[in-house]
C-alpha cells in the first residue's frame, strides 16, 4: 500500500487513500446531496426523483407469476445463466422492439443487462479510452454523464431545441472536434421523451442525425427507456429501425414494468454484441436468471400491453396536472417544455435566477426539484431545472408547483430589490454564453473529465 500524508502532515482517515485508481480520485459527493436526503421527508413534495409509480402495478399478478416460476422452473431460475441473457427473454425483447418499428432484430444481437444502465456502462467500457469524446444532448441524462466520466471520457454537449438535437450544431461540433484532432466515439442520445427535457427528436432530424453520424464514423447510442410511454398512444419510430449498423439501441423494463427487476438490454450489430457479452462476463458472470425469467413469464402470461396503457394514462394525467399548474402559477419569464410522453418537464427560469442557489429555499418551502446544472458536464443549466411528474399523484403535483412558483416569485423580487448589485444578463455572468465553445469548456483541455457521483440515484 502507498501511504500518503496530507500537506499538513496528518494521515488521511481512509487507509487506502493512496491506492485508488486515477479514475476514482475525482469522485466527490455533490453539494446538493445533503439537501436530497432532506427532500425524501414526507412533508416535501418531491418533483426531483424519476421513480416510476410501481404502486400502479398489479402486485397480485407479479406474485403469482413469481410463484409459478419457482414451482415450475425453479431449478433454471435459481441457477447461473449466460452473460448474454436468457434466449426466450431475448426473443420476447425483439417483439417489444417491433412495437417501435424495429422489425429485423435477431435475439442473437440482444444482450440482456442489469437495467439499461449496465448496457451504457458496458458500451462505454468497450468503446471509450480516456480522453475520447462522447457527444450528448445538452442537457442529458445525469447518470450517463457519470458513466462517461467514470471511464474518463470527454463529454461534449450538442445543443437541442424543441425539436431535439440540432443537426447543424452536431455538424459544427464534429467539424470543430475534427480540427482539434479529437477522437469522437459515440453520440449518446435519448431521442424520445428525453430525460431530462421531455423533448422528442423529430422524424426528419432523426434521419439527418443518422446521416451525419454515419459520415463521421460515430456510433449512435439510442437510449430509449420511455419510448412506449407515449401520451398519444402512437409509438415513436426508433432511430435503430432505420440504421441497423450505425445504432446501438438500449431498452429497459424499468418504466414499463418495474425497475426493481433490473432488466434492460442492448440491441447491437453482431460484432458489437459479441464484445458486450465479453464485457458482461467480466462484470457480472451471469445476469440474474430469476428476474429475467420473471419478466419473461410476466410478458407471456399477463396483459402487459394493457398495463402499459394504464401507465400511459396515469402519467398523462400527471403531466396534465403539472402543465396546468405551471400555466396557472408561474411568473412571467419562466418557460417549460410540453412532453408527449415519459416523465419529465424542463423548466427554464427568468434570466439570472439560479436554480441551484434557490434549492435550499424551495426545500424549506417543502418542494424539491433537480437543478439544471446536474444535467450538463460543463456547468451550464444554472437557470433551469428538471421537474418530474411521474411519482406524486396529481394533487401533490399541483401543491408542489404552487409552492415552487411562490419560491420563484420571492427569488425574483429579491433579485429586483438588489438589482444594482446583481447582474440580470446571463451573458455577463456566464462567459460561456458568448463563447462559441460554450458547449464544452474542456474543448482545449486534454484532461479527462473527473468522475462524479449522482445525487439522483433513481434516474
Ligand atoms: N437511461 C435513461 C435516459 C434513464 O432515464 C434511465 C433511468 N431513469 C436509465 C437509462 C437507466 O434505467 P435502468 O437501468 O433502470 O434500465
Topology, pairings included?
Blueprint: H1 22-25, H2 33-39, E1 45-46, H3 59-77, H4 87-98, E2 110-114, H5 115-127, E3 133-138, H6 142-150, E4 154-161, E5 164-165, H7 167-180, E6 184-189, H8 203-216, E7 219-223, E8 247-252, E9 263-267, H9 270-284, H10 289-301, H11 304-329, E10 335-336, E11 344-348, H12 355-364, E12 367-368, E13 370-371, E14 384-388, H13 394-417, H14 426-429
Helix pairs in contact: 3-10, 5-6, 5-9, 7-8, 11-13
List keywords for this structure.
459 residues, alpha/beta, Aspartate Aminotransferase, domain 1, Aspartate Aminotransferase, domain 2, 2 domains, eight-stranded mixed sheet, four-stranded antiparallel sheet, 14 helices, 40% helix, disordered C terminus, binds 4'-deoxy-4'-aminopyridoxal-5'-phosphate
Amino acid at each position: 500500500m502507498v501511504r500518503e500524508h496530507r500537506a499538513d502532515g496528518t494521515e488521511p482517515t481512509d487507509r487506502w487513500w493512496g491506492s485508488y485508481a486515477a479514475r476514482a480520485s475525482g469522485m466527490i459527493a455533490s453539494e446538493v446531496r445533503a439537501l436530497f436526503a432532506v427532500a425524501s421527508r414526507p412533508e416535501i413534495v418531491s418533483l426531483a426523483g424519476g421513480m416510476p409509480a410501481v404502486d400502479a402495478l398489479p402486485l397480485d399478478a407479479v406474485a403469482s407469476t413469481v410463484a409459478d416460476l419457482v414451482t415450475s422452473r425453479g431449478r433454471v431460475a435459481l441457477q447461473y445463466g449466460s452473460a448474454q441473457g436468457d434466449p426466450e427473454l431475448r426473443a420476447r425483447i425483439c417483439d417489444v422492439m417491433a412495437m417501435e418499428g424495429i422489425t429485423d432484430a435477431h435475439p442473437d444481437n440482444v444482450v440482456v443487462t442489469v437495467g439499461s444502465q449496465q448496457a451504457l456502462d458496458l458500451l462505454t467500457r468497450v468503446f471509450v479510452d480516456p480522453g475520447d469524446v462522447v457527444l450528448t444532448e445538452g442537457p442529458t441524462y445525469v447518470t450517463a454523464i457519470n458513466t462517461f466520466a467514470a471511464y474518463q471520457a470527454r463529454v461534449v454537449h450538442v445543443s437541442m431545441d424543441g425539436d431535439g438535437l440540432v443537426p447543424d450544431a452536431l455538424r459544427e461540433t464534429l467539424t470543430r472536434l475534427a480540427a482539434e484532432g479529437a477522437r469522437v466515439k459515440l453520440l449518446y442520445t435519448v431521442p424520445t421523451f428525453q430525460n431530462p427535457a421531455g423533448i422528442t427528436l423529430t422524424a426528419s432530424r432523426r434521419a439527418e442525425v443518422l446521416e451525419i453520424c454515419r459520415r463521421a464514423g460515430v456510433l449512435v447510442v439510442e437510449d430509449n427507456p420511455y419510448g412506449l410511454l407515449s401520451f398519444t398512444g402512437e409509438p415513436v419510430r426508433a432511430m435503430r429501425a432505420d440504421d441497423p449498423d450505425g445504432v446501438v439501441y438500449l431498452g429497459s423494463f424499468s418504466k414499463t414494468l418495474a425497475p426493481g427487476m433490473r432488466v434492460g438490454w442492448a440491441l447491437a450489430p453482431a460484432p458489437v454484441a459479441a464484445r458486450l457479452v465479453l464485457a458482461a462476463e467480466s462484470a457480472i458472470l451471469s445476469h440474474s436468471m430469476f428476474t429475467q425469467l420473471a419478466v419473461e413469464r410476466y410478458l407471456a402470461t399477463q396483459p402487459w400491453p394493457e398495463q402499459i396503457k394504464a401507465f400511459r394514462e396515469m402519467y398523462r394525467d400527471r403531466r396534465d396536472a403539472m402543465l396546468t399548474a405551471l400555466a396557472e402559477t408561474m411568473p412571467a419569464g419562466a418557460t417549460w417544455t410540453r412532453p408527449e410522453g415519459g416523465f419529465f418537464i424542463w423548466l427554464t427560469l427568468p434570466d439570472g435566477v439560479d436554480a441551484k442557489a434557490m434549492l435550499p429555499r424551495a426545500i424549506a418551502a417543502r418542494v424539491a426539484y433537480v437543478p439544471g446544472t446536474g444535467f450538463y458536464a460543463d456547468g451550464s443549466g444554472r437557470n433551469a431545472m428538471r421537474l418530474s411528474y411521474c411519482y406524486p399523484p396529481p394533487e401533490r403535483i399541483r401543491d408542489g408547483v404552487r409552492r415552487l412558483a411562490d419560491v420563484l416569485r420571492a427569488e425574483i423580487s429579491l433579485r429586483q430589490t438588489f438589482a444594482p448589485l446583481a447582474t440580470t444578463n446571463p451573458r455577463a455572468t456566464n462567459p460561456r454564453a458568448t463563447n462559441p465553445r460554450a458547449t464544452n469548456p474542456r474543448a482545449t483541455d486534454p484532461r479527462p473529465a473527473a468522475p462524479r457521483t449522482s445525487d439522483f440515484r433513481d434516474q
